[in-house]
Structure prediction request, 597 residues.
Amino acid sequence: MWSSVQRWRGVALIGAIAAVAIWLAVTGQLVLYIHPRYIVFTVVMAAIALVLVVAAVASAASRRARDPEAPASRRERVIGLLAAATAGVFVIGMLVLPPATLSQATAQQRQINATAADLDALDEAASADDAAVARFTVREWSGILRQTSDLSFFADKPVTDLVGFVAPDPDAPEDVFYVSRFVITCCAVDAQPLGVPVHLPGWQERFAVDSWVSVSGSFVANPSEASQQPLVVEPDAVEAVEQPSEPYLF
Amino acid sequence: MPVALETPQTREARRASRRWGARHLVAAGLGLAGIAGLIALRATTAGAGPAGLPDAAQDLITLATSVIIESLPFIVLGIALSILVQVWIPEQWLLRILPRNPWGRRAAISLFGMFLPVCECGNVPLARGIVRRGFTVPESMVFLLAAPILNPVTILTTHAAFGFDDGILVARLLGGFLIANVLGWLFSLHPEPERLLTGRFAEQCRIDDGHQHGTRAEQTIDLFVRESSILMPALVIGAIVAGAVQVAVPRDVLVALGSDPLWSVLAMMALAFIISVCSNVDAFFILPFASTFLPGSIVAFLVFGPIIDIKMLALMRTTYAARTLVQVTVIVALLSAVLGLVVNYVV
Prediction:
């Protein structure tokens, strides 16, 4: 058993992972894990891997003498089998668990707005027309909020249909939540949570944490005393929406 | 015109070869059916709705999956280039172009990455390939350490992220080059370089010596099977550990340290170790931190991260002995920290 596990574990793992990658690409879900610019590269390399996997399986039909393998000690075999089993279980998980986005647990753990997002956003916003402002995402708004808390700047800049998932403000969880998105530079590993605070006392009764909402409203001085945020959105409308097909911003 | 007489022997041989071809076709068909089966399984289980796991567990799976999916193309590219170097490129090509003197030789090897632009996960199979091709173990380390930094993709992305601000790009390239060469020199002093390798890999290199089995196509498949069997379990386990650590260590602990000249360097190295992101893109990852962290700590992140991180240690463990990796980690960490401090205090 050892020699066939040793010979086939890698082919099985790489074949299963490449199959998952291709299925994710076909169903448009590869963006849950990596930046869109890597999609073509990933698909091409996964396809090459699958060709090699089929060739490897085909070559198993040869009755050719194999190169001798280095002998393994009992301890090495046990470790090797355990490693193969662990990796195998995880990859079976990749095959049967539905793909998911990162949740607000990671957003809290990484601290929303801990990093500077779009530092050009303020300059852009100063000269943007109404249509451009209406298209601003969480990325632009959080960048602007980081650089200014001057209310007059926001006077003619309402928030329009801002989409994100709900994450509570850790300082004032009753009154304020963040409309949040993760921003990705390479893959979900480096996702940075950004958020725009929304003042809506009792929001928990209407929206579950992690559910997706669309918010329209305007910026006001934060009425909540516990919250650290100087400005918040006072919403005119908050609606539950479906999770977008590209939940991350790039 | 001579008529080919069909003796019973040749007829038997022809039948055997036809049976042989048919057996391969059946096996290939089974392989294709297996892959189709996996995709069908994936497609049918996708609609099952949320798995109902706790957030932290679900995020651990998402993060680890993301590391695996992101590394997969680079691993495949690395294995492909490794096969190219070992099976398809004549041995003399690589050895002829190198200087004789050991310092010059190592310096030239540290620039191999300019022609073999794989990021760090793809470098491990390549480094294994060049050891099998007769390079010394310290030389393989020079390549492994320098290539992720001194390669065109990394240089382009680092330049795109930072330009020439604060000397970050120059410090990264020079630092990567120096660290790789210093480390290569230190290990070249080792009396028995073979002991730097894991017992299994050293044994395989010894068995390989001088013998080539089968046609080139057969060797290609054999190498693919062998390399993937060693690297894939390491990749998956490295990804699980990296995901688990990320779920467990709060990010604000690291960020709070960002403005101190010493602590910022150490915090950034810790972040690089945990995050295990590819060298081709780590500059974009670290860019948003540049406003809160000092430039020296950014340089330490960009030099330490491509060489040492959780995923890389798991992958390198397939080839180098645990003792060697501890030494490499300590030396690289010290040198990166010094480099970061120099940039913080001097530049």
Notes: Chain B has one domain: 80-345. The mean pLDDT of chain B is 83. Chain B touches chain A through 93 residues (CB under 8 Å).
